[in-house]
Amino acid sequence: MRYILGGMPKKTAAARASRRRFIGGLAAAGAVRAQSPGKVSGFDHVALPMQNTESMVAFYRGLGFDVTESATACSVHIGDNMINFHRPQRWRDKSFTLRAPAAQPPCGDLCFVWQGTPGALKAMLDRAGAKVIEGPGPRQGGRRKTGSSVYVRDPDGNLLEFMIYS
Question: Fewest CB within 10 A of the end CB: N or C in the chain?
Answer without folding.
Answer: C
